[in-house]
Design goal:
The complex is a heterodimer of chains A (about 280) and B (about 300). Helix content of chain A is about 40%, strand content about 20%. Chain A has about 280 residues and is of the alpha/beta class. Chain A has a domain of about 70 residues. In chain A, helix 8 crosses helix 9. Classes of the chains: A alpha/beta (about 280), B mainly alpha (about 300). At the A-B interface, strand 6 and helix 4 of A face helix 7, helix 8 and helix 12 of B. The structure holds adenosine-5'-triphosphate and magnesium ion. The site of magnesium ion has 4 residues of chain A, from helix 2. Chain B: One of its GO terms (biological process) is transmembrane transport. Chain B: Keywords: Cell membrane, Membrane, Transmembrane, Transmembrane helix, Transport. Chain B: Its main location: membrane.
Chain lengths: ~280, ~300
Amino acid sequence: MVEDHGTNLIMHTIICQNVSKVWGLDTPEEVLAIDRVSFSVEPGEFLVIIGPSGCGKSTLLSMIAGLEPPTAGKILHDGEPIAGPSPQRSMIFQQSSLLPWMSVIDNVAFGLELKGVNRKARHQRAEHFLKEVGLRSFAHRYPHQLSGGMQQRACIARALCLGTDVLLMDEPFAALDVQTRYQMQKFLLDIWQAAGKTVVFVTHHIDEAIFLADRVIILTARPGRLLESVTIDMARPRDVMSSEFERHRNLFVEHMRSEVVRAFEEQELVEMMDTRV
Amino acid sequence: MQQTPVQESQSTAPLQSSSLSERKRKARIKSLKSLVQQVLWWVLSLSLFIGLWELLSALGLLNTLILPAPHQFIAEIANQEQFMSLKVGVERTGANFAALTAIVATLTRVLSGLVLGFIAALLVGCLAAYFKIFGNLTLPVITLLAPIAPIAWIPFAILAFGIGDGAAIFVVFVGIFFILTLATVNTIRNVDQLYINTARVLGASRRQVMFKIILPAIIPDLFVILRMNLFAAWMAVLAAEMVGVNTGLGAIIMVGRQMFNAKLMFLGMAMIGVVGYLLDAGFAQIQKRVLWWKTTAQI
Ligand SMILES: Nc1ncnc2c1ncn2[C@@H]1O[C@H](COP(=O)(O)OP(=O)(O)OP(=O)(O)O)[C@@H](O)[C@H]1O
Ligand SMILES: [Mg+2]
């Protein structure tokens, strides 16, 4: 066991050990959101966490980000317990989190501004990443002048600009229309493959999970418990119409139906399958 | 057959752009039209009011000693030197600019009070939100002081600062300071958690969150509250000028009463109305600039 632990430190970027989260502890509104979840993420891995709405996915991710402490259990990043937010782990939220009073380039460079990098140097770097995400000509616009997809790309550029190794993404494309979402998924895979980042990606779309992931972790309905960990060994780019994809899709539906159905209505499962990539 | 789509795309492109500029032009004409209409209604409404007034006094139905006709009291602007009898804020400018000097004196007081109050309230509000103990110690007192009307502070202000600018500025200051401090604390609590989390995840310290997120996020909202309290501040200064400060627009009315000159009284009132309106319109313009990222986002 001790040896195991030693290798874990080298093998894994992020380790969750028996992590639980109770919201509003010792109040009448106490909610057990996450219940003894353990898993680990390898460096460079694309891990997707999937689960029904309200099962605690965002809670889990914000604990990994360091925004919320776990009630019980431990979370390690590169062997160090997570004590608070760190520029080493960037979070991309479901809604665009660009600051509306700053131009796009200032937003992308904001992480560097906080570090005290001077304006010229940080703008130079931000410009590079804006180009990377295809927003160079929008550098001096303001967030409200961008479409939803562009805003999320700018958020991704902001995370990359800071040189983060781990991207934590909380349903980043859920608010986008189907076409844009598909473009953004392909775009994210390109970035991930080119930059060698570790990604932890939360979603409640089965197709999105299969399309993106190296490995998918399935959570139960609230309280979120670890239901299954499924490795997707399909070659990329993946074809959503292929029989292999269909096989995985059926597998997921089966997994989730057999365990989760008692906890939440059929309605929601139908909804999850319905919104294809 | 093959050429048709090409022709179509060629013909639709200029068509679209021309219709776009056409639409823009139409929108501009439309907004111009509504502006002209608005101005017309203003002119109509004013002339109806003044005309009726003039008619009634021409028919002898009004006692012009108490209620002079508009043309009478507006003509009074030619007799500016009589404002001097109680020094309406005129020391060096000479009698011909007495009315202007009074306007400048009143505006200076209102604006200095507002600026000082805004800065002080922002400072205290931020400190109260940042240092919990400081907030717990000061906020209850501020909460109790806030409902005291600015006018109620006038007697104390004149005792403490004597007759002059100091007292008037102080009245405006207390009139907005407490309200705005409470508003600052409140708006800080309502700043979108998403912005704060974003900054924290990017490595912001608590201080950086305060200066880079909280401050830019609350200033537009605070400016709205400042503008809502503008008229209270304006009235407080006029009242102070009437009861003790003895210079400025408010004093003109009192001079008129003391001299039994109703024309002067009404001239003062008219000037207060016009200047007050212009002040508010000016603030509305500033607010548009300060709020640009909110207003444009909502359109
Ligand atoms: N800040 C909070 N305070 C109290 N309870 C919370 C808080 N955030 C989440 N919860 C509760 O924790 C549970 C899990 O919420 P969470 O947002 O993590 O779910 P989710 O899986 O991300 O859902 P969705 O798919 O709808 O985003 C919910 O019951 C929610 O009410
Ligand atoms: Mg969520």
